[in-house]
Amino acid sequence: MRRGVLSNDDFLARAPHRYWTYSLWLIAGLTLVALIAYNVFFVQLNVTHVFIVVLFALLSSVALSLTLKHVLASEQPRLMRAFFIFSNIRLVAAAILIVGYALLSQQKGKELLPFVIILSVYFILQDVLDTLFVVRLRNKAEQEK
Question: CA 109, CA 2: separation in Å to the nearest integer?
């Protein structure tokens, strides 16, 4: 084995930690871009919106990391099924977050739009990261067989 290249066993064992690292970088980068846009371009952005969305993104990243850890430790990993279920649960949780925020903040229409846009950007980019990561993980798991 070449130096610096992980075997399939090592790659699968470190996958939850690796996913958590990638996810943190994505969330930090998106937050930095949002705050720079707020300060430099004077975009009308409520920092509370960003904080709520970042908290949601962090919680969903922790949940997927723990799900990966559990699924990969099982005897017969059903990675794609678990990922599909997780993605649907996260979509429902995002919808509940939007409705809950709208009810609690009593914002309607155009006032709620920035929050929905910020959540959508985070959600879509995080979903792309998750999909690419899980597909790569599945390919590594299949190579192991």
Answer: 57
